[in-house]
Every structure is written in structure tokens, then in C-alpha cells.
Structure prediction request, 181 residues.
Amino acid sequence: MANLDLSPSPASPNNIRVAWILAAVVVGMLGLAYAAVPIYQIFCQVTGYGGTTQRAEDASVGIIDREMGVRFTVSVDAGLPLEVKPAAMSVDKIGSKVTVTYVATNLSDEPLATTAGFNVAPALAGSYFNKIECFCFTEQTLAPGEVKEMPVVYYVDPELDLDKELDTISEITLFYAFYAS
Prediction:
């Protein structure tokens, strides 16, 4: 019968080095997981990918005869004591500077801090939808029972008319999702 030595042996330097490398990989992967959302958000804002709108200083690009309807929708995280009424649909000539207003109401008896993310559908139209002023990604604090108007100023870039994939599009949807911050 063979004798098995089950006593612990000293760790070799190679094993310790492999353990450190694996620990560094795990920490690095966790760091990348946390950084993925802001990096993706920056990528989308720069490229308009996934329906992310563009930011603009002013609507000085010109107005064309083609009209575009913009529908405004909203969702609020379940359990968040907030009511948000989106702006009414707007139909304007492409290139026109338009101002609409969302209205938020704090339904609780405590102050409420909320932030809204946004998206545009169809996604391809996101690179042509330019926001001049927006409440998105800015913390909004509402006092108990407070009603707050939140304006959005935007224009649709006339370059959209040159995009053959958007020839048949007559309506864009701007969607906001509110969550606790």
C-alpha cells in the first residue's frame, strides 16, 4: 500500500504569482464592469448610436419644408413616488427650434431626488435629434408635493432628409426614464 503525504507543502513562488495575477484579473474585470455604463454612455453621445441624441448650442442649421412629428413618452421606476406628464406631441418643420415641457409631481411627503435618462426611436434618428436644453442626466430635487416644469429645447437636423434610410419616417419618439438618484 502506498503512503500518501497529506501534509501541507510550502507554496511555491510560481503558485503565489499565479494567485496574484488571477486576483488582479478579477479586480480589473470588476473595474471594467463598473466603468462599462459611463463609457458606453459617452460612446453613444458622441456617435448617436442606439438612439442617443446629440447636443447643440443653437438651431442655426436652417429649416426645410419636410415636417417631423416628435412624440414624448416617459416611464418612472416602480415604487418611485413621482408622476411625470410628458409634453404633447409636436409636429414642426425639420430644423425648427422647438420647446416642450414635461411636468413632474412629487407624490410623497418627503423631498425626492430623481434623474432621467433618455433615448430616441427609431435609433437611426438619434444622430439627427439635437437637444439644446434638457433636464436629462441632471439630478432634479422636488420638495414634498412640488410640481416642477422641466423644459426640453431641441431641433431635428435637416441632414435627416438626406438619409435614405429615414425617407419614410414621419415621427420620432423621445423617451425619458426616471429613476431615484
